[in-house]
Amino acid sequence: MGRKKGLPEFEETAPDGFDPANPYKDPVAMIEMREHIVREKWIQIEKAKILREKVKWCYRVEGVNHYQKCRHLVQQYLDSTRGVGWGKDHRPISLHGPKPEAVEAE
Question: Could you tell me the keywords of this UniProt record (predicted)?
Answer without folding.
Answer: Electron transport, Membrane, Mitochondrion, Mitochondrion inner membrane, Respiratory chain, Transport
